[in-house]
Amino acid sequence: MTTRATDETSSGIRLGLRANLAQFSLLVAVNALVGGMLGQERTVLPLLADDVFHLSAYTSALTYILAFGATKAVTNFFAGTWSDRFGRKPVLIAGWLIALPIPAMLAWGPTWGWIIAANILLGINQGLTWSTTVIMKIDLVGPERRGLAMGFNEAAGYVAVAATAMATGAIADHAGLRPEPFLLGAAYVVLALGLSTLAVRETRDHARFEAARHVTPVGSEHDGELTTGQITRLTSLSDKALSAASQAGMVNNLNDALAWGIFPLLFAAHGLSIAEIGILAALYPAVWGAGQMLTGWWSDHIGRKHLITAGMLLQAAAIALVAAGTTFGVWATAQVLLGVGTALVYPTLLAVIGDVAHPAWRARAVGVYRLWRDGGFAVGALLAGVLADAFSLTTAIWAIAALTAASGLVVAVRMYETHPRL
Fold first, then answer.
1. Any idea what DSSP says for residue 236?
2. pLDDT digits (tens, 9 = 90+) for 38-85
3. Which of 118, 127, 129, 146 is 20 to 30 A from 36 (CA-CA)?
């Protein structure tokens, strides 16, 4: 028996997808519920801002995305630090406890301030729960299958976003914008809190097990003794792969804020029904979500960099097609292409972080990356709103298409290949 096998047996810890399949599958299910909490807003809330609260300025109407993105970005950073300090499971449970009042606030909140407050809580919920499920899956699978693991994680979340967006659109088309569409979110919270409390197991010892056997290249600065400040600088600026991934993640979610807040308003302005808008709102995350199961696995075989570059450029082309289009068919094609481009990028960026970061500080690196990535929601809401108010909806869309293309070129020039075998 090898030393590694002996160590695994004596510690009771084994790394790998097959060895941890039950817990991994449970975490996939929990992350689907995380995505469902986000999906309950994708179709209904932009229309709610216009039809119920009569917010005529686009910047004002997108304040809920700004509040969500800013809160989630900051919470991501602390989620990584707290996961290292207190363990993954307590952070996960805390995220679901914070989510308890959100559906009621969305369903019956009397003013727009209640909607903004609900999205602040949603940002905290998403930051704690999504970050933690990412970290826990990376802990369990070890270095060989990170791309596949992230593909499953993000697929579960965004397929649930799509399914819930379509479901709430259909419900709203028949029962109205409130309160019925948000009752789905209430069911998600109760189920997820029960699973996280009763069935999910702590995975921090898996990261410690991997860290004890991690081999750091001679002369590498990426060892296990870095402070949080050093990790923040590495992930944000000094490491070419980590920093390129951080900016790409930010721009990716910047254009997701556009899809969330501006696209439904554009579609409504061209006379589409709520049900049709719900279908378009679901197409993008559905393709994105399902595609990640393939693209995460694919990045484990051909590497990360080229998939990310291609994905960002495809997203830019898809967003430009939305700006140029005027019919349901063109927009549906654009949403499918946007989903494919995002699927190429999303799990692969997380795999880059897992490749480069030492297991001892990987959770904090994930937190810093997700700080930048989800900060894109806030930047995107503000940028799209200001441009739409100053010029037009299509001007805002064209501008973000150009920014997305520029981000892909940054990855092509700056990022190095990070896959261990490549």
1. I
2. 999 888 888 888 788 888 778 777 888 889 989 988 998 888 889 888
3. 146
pLDDT tens, position by position, 252-267: 999 989 998 899 989 9
DSSP 115-148: HHHHHHHHHHHHHHHHHHHHHHHHHHH-STTHHH
**Domain assignment present for 378:** yes
Contacts (Cβ under 8 Å, ≥6 apart) of 334: 318, 319, 321, 322, 325
pLDDT digits (tens, 9 = 90+) for 207-231: 888 777 755 543 345 555 788 899 9
Q: Please state the φ and ψ torsions of residue 12, each to the nearest 5 degrees.
A: 75, 5
Q: How many CB atoms lie within 10 A of CB 194?
A: 11
Into how many domains does the chain fold? 1
Tens digits of per-residue pLDDT, 174-193?
A: 888 899 999 999 999 999 99
Range of the domain at 293: 16-207+226-414
Across the chain, what does the average pLDDT equal?
88
* CA–CA dist 185, 104 (Å, integer): 9
* DSSP letter assigned to residue 217: P
Which value, to the nearest 10 degrees, does the dihedral of the CA atoms of residues 98, 149, 87, 205 take? 160
* DSSP-assigned letters across all residues of 21-84: HHHHHHHHHHHHHHHHHHHHHHTHHHHHHHHTS---SHHHHTHHHHHHHHHHHHHHHHHHHHHH
d(CA 403, CA 312): 10
Tell me the CATH number at 155: 1.20.1250.20
